[in-house]
Structures are given as structure tokens and as C-alpha cells.
Design a protein that fits this description.
single chain, 233 residues, binds propionyl Coenzyme A, binds magnesium ion
């Protein structure tokens, strides 16, 4: 009963923030990630992966199941579900897709976060070519962390800013995970959407206008990178 209530309240909030296919036609290559939500002990948790060390890009970093769009994918949701199946053995029919949130930019790709509920009994089977570990974090950690800092960054196109960095200690497994950059950006936004409260650290949004400020941030970043590219042609 508690599980049903927690999911219903999250579902309602998420639907208000669904961008649908609003950003689908941006002329950049596409990638998607799945933000898999599960309810454990009455609380929402997010499933995350650790990338295999032999991957060319971002080896050993924490990220969501996901990857680049392929020709067979009909939309961003298809990409996220296909990649989640390939990487952690999650069957697409076992995911209740709820919404797409505002995109982000990484490595010249538009990355779409797709949010879905998965069963609390799901047992991941990581594909060792791409994933070395799978773990879950209470979603609330991304608004009320015990170990948090910001990291500066600068893109090759000259854009500079800062990013969130969380250290999450999984006491049961006696392991620590560093969650930062794009992955932390999506986790924080998801937690803000669902909990609708102020986090214990500074964020890049106007919390009274979360949807419009997230879209404005994205379009400003897009314009600063993409318009600069066009002017270099
Ligand atoms: C601001 C900078 C940051 O945020 S970095 C901070 C911390 N890191 C993060 O937040 C991670 C962010 N990155 C991501 O989420 C992902 O890289 C995104 C952008 C979603 C792209 O997905 P990604 O996982 O790289 O792409 P992908 O899954 O399509 O492919 C990954 C590589 O694996 C390869 N691959 C594919 N299938 C197989 C297979 N069966 N066996 C072996 N290898 C396989 C792909 O060819 C791909 O390789 P490559 O990257 O093209 O060299
Ligand atoms: Mg991947």
C-alpha cells in the first residue's frame, strides 16, 4: 500500500515535468539514459551503474544505463530501454516508462533522461563489456547528501561552470561511489522534481520555476556551444 502511494505521488509529479518530444528535433547526435526508480523499504531509490574499466569513454565512472541512439531506435525511450537491456539485463516490458525530462549536452550529443519504474525484485545481470557494478541510492540523497562538493569544469568549446559531486557510502556493501557530472545533474533534477523541496546545497535552477529554468539553462548551453560552432564554419 505504502509502495503504491509513493509511486503514485512520484508519477503525478513526473508527468508535470514530461518534455515529451519537445527537444527531439535538435540537429545533434542523440543518446539516452534510463533513470530507473524502485521502491525499497517505502522509499524511492535510483539504480546506477559503474562503467567497465576497458571502455574508451568515461571508464570506471558512475552513470545510468544508457548509450547512443542507433538506427533501429524509434525514439529516445527506445534507446534508453534497449541500452538498459544490453547493459544490465532489464527487460523493456518490466519498465513502466513515466516521462522524459529536460535533456543535457555531453560529447556533442543531446542526452535525454527517460524516467521509469522498475520492480523492487529486479536483479541486474551486468554485461561485463560495459558495466562493472550496479548499485542503488535512496533518491533523497540527491537533495540531502552527507558528503557533497562542487567541481569546476571547462568544455573544449570554452564554456566553464561547476558540477555536483556526491560520495555515497553503501554501508551494507562497505563500498563508496563517486557520483558526479552528467549523472549527478540528472539525479539532482529528478529528486527536485519528485520531492519539490529545497536541497541542502546550491542548484542551478530557480526552484519556484523549475521547469522553465531547466529548459532555459539547457537552451542557453545549447546556444553557447552550437551557435559558436556555426559561427566557426
Ligand atoms: C561534464 C562531464 C561529465 O559529466 S563526466 C562525469 C561523470 N560521468 C558521467 O556522468 C557519465 C556520463 N556519460 C554517460 O552517461 C554516457 O557516456 C552517455 C552520454 C549516455 C553515452 O553512453 P555510452 O554508454 O558512452 O554509450 P554506449 O552505451 O552507446 O556505448 C559505450 C561504448 O561501449 C561500446 N559497446 C557497445 N556495446 C558493446 C559491447 N557489446 N561490447 C563491447 N563494447 C560495446 C560502444 O562501442 C561504445 O564505445 P565508444 O565510446 O564509442 O568507444
Ligand atoms: Mg552505455
Amino acid at each position: 500500500m505504502e509502495r503504491r502511494r509513493v509511486k503514485e505521488s512520484a508519477r503525478r509529479r513526473l508527468r508535470e515535468f514530461d518534455v515529451g518530444d519537445r527537444f527531439s528535433r535538435l540537429p545533434l547526435p542523440k543518446a539516452s539514459v534510463l533513470l530507473p526508480l524502485t521502491v525499497r523499504a517505502g522509499k524511492l531509490h535510483l539504480l546506477l551503474t559503474v562503467r567497465a574499466m576497458q571502455l574508451r569513454r568515461s571508464p570506471g565512472e558512475v552513470c545510468f544505463p544508457g548509450g547512443k541512439r542507433e538506427a533501429i531506435d524509434k525514439d529516445e525511450i527506445d534507446t534508453a530501454l534497449r541500452e538498459a537491456k544490453e547493459e544490465v539485463g532489464l527487460q523493456p516490458e518490466k519498465v513502466e516508462v513515466v516521462c522524459r525530462l529536460v535533456d543535457a549536452l555531453l560529447m556533442n550529443h543531446v542526452v535525454t533522461p527517460v524516467v521509469g519504474f522498475i520492480e523492487d525484485t529486479f536483479q541486474a545481470t551486468p554485461n561485463p563489456d560495459e558495466v562493472s557494478d550496479v548499485f542503488v541510492v535512496p533518491l533523497e540523497y540527491f537533495v540531502k547528501p552527507s558528503n557533497y562538493k562542487t567541481l569546476p569544469y571547462k568544455t573544449s568549446s570554452g564554456y566553464s561552470g561547476w558540477m555536483h559531486c556526491f560520495i555515497y557510502d553503501d554501508h551494507e556493501r562497505k563500498m563508496s561511489f563517486k557520483i558526479w557530472g552528467l549523472t549527478a545533474h540528472f539525479a539532482v533534477f529528478l529528486a527536485l522534481v519528485i520531492f519539490g523541496k529545497h536541497p541542502t546545497f546550491k542548484v542551478e535552477y530557480d526552484l519556484d520555476n523549475l521547469i522553465s529554468s531547466a529548459e532555459t539553462n539547457f537552451m542557453n548551453l545549447y546556444a553557447s556551444i552550437y551557435e559558436r560552432k556555426k559561427s566557426n564554419l
